[in-house]
Amino acid sequence: MASDRYNDLDQLGQNNGLPQSPDEAVLERVKNPCPEPYMVRLVAPEFTSICPVTGQPDFAHLVVDYCPKDWIVESKAFKLFLGSFRNHGDFHEACTTGIGRRLVKEIEPTWLRIGGYWYPRGGIPIDVFYQHGKAPEGVWIPDQGVPPYRGRG
User: Fold this and answer.
1) Would you say the C-alpha torsion 136, 104, 76, 1 has a positive or negative sign?
2) Model-level pTM greater than 0.85?
3) Residue 95 catalytic?
């Protein structure tokens, strides 16, 4: 039986469709279960959005690292939030930094970074990086592990 502390989650355990836009997506959060500083990594190797000019799909490998303070993002809500970009038209820079800023707004982490490693269209891969705050001392922050583009996979 689920703990009472998760009763306020509306998406977890439900049959949810994708939100129509990132603005409509609800990013639910859960109380941070660990008092010591630590890092969380969320990886979305098949992120998609739409080019706002051509309407063609854009693809990225996203890596989000953050050190929680009071909250962690609920993973299903995060998945639905990312899925809401599938029909969203914006440039790589706006998508990547927008995801980072939205997470900062919702979960108020001590530190957050996002790497958006975009697959090339027109021959140029675009990698976008955003950071908020400073990582706490003593927390292991590994490299994001995404190589420079050479048939990234």
Assistant:
1) positive
2) yes
3) no
